[in-house]
Amino acid sequence: MARYSLFLGLLVLISCGEQKPAEAPFIDPARRTVIPIPSEPDTRPIIVAFGDSLTAGYGVNGGFSYPDFLQKEIAGYRVVNAGISGDTTSGGLARIDSVTRLAPKIVILELGGNDGLRGLPLASTRANLEQMIVELRKSGVRVALAGITLPPNYGPDYIREFEKIYKDLAAKYKLPFIPFLLEGVVGVPGMMQPDGIHATVKGNEVVARLVMQTLKPLL
């Protein structure tokens, strides 16, 4: 857990109300993603980055999220950013159809952090993630799962069980697995925004390289 110490310490300040949350306000679970249609036909196979603010690129200018940098690494695929800041697993499940309609080859699933920060029941988070995985696989999609962790004031038992959700689902469905999406970013100067939660432009480049390592065998 040492590698997460700075990340977790800063999250404690946010969760205790000593700093305004960097996340957007709560997202209605019924909200649907509006995915832009390319101005010209793009027949490349699709990879969808499906998540919350870490995927959406909160706090950086358009074109500098980790999916944007991932696109530069994979010219033969079209990377679609389906991240919504503040989204939860229930919100993701409610908009899963917006992803499957794209008929993607691969989906990078990164959701659950906001569930944990709100102290939502772990059983619900697990069930929502599992249902999304099942729905995506039923559509013929290959799913890569990205995990995250929580601040220490949530207690070791809750944190352990929260992290276990990702490990268990990755093992059960034999998914390519990224245990911690911000590995190599948290605690590194210049990689994190002042809120201590979201990556900078430079940090998003590192996240993209980490994700690329997991995607390579799938391409």
| Beta-strand residue percentage | 5-15%
Structural class: alpha/beta
Q: What is the approximate shape? A: globular
Order of helices and strands: HEHHEHHEHHEHEH
- The main sheet orders its strands as 2-1-3-4-5
User: What Rg, in angstroms, do the CA atoms define?
Assistant: 16 Å
Describe this structure in words.
With 219 residues, the chain is of the alpha/beta class. It is built from 9 helices and 5 strands, in the order αβααβααβααβαβα. Helix 3 (66-73) crosses helix 9 and helix 7 packs parallel to helix 8 (156-172). The chain starts with a helix and ends with a helix.
Task: Name some characteristics of this structure.
single chain, 219 residues, alpha/beta, 5 strands, 11% strand
SSE map:
Blueprint: H1 5-15, E1 46-51, H2 53-56, H3 66-73, E2 78-83, H4 89-94, H5 96-100, E3 106-110, H6 113-117, H7 122-138, E4 142-146, H8 156-172, E5 177-178, H9 201-215
Parallel strand pairs: 1-2, 1-3, 3-4, 4-5
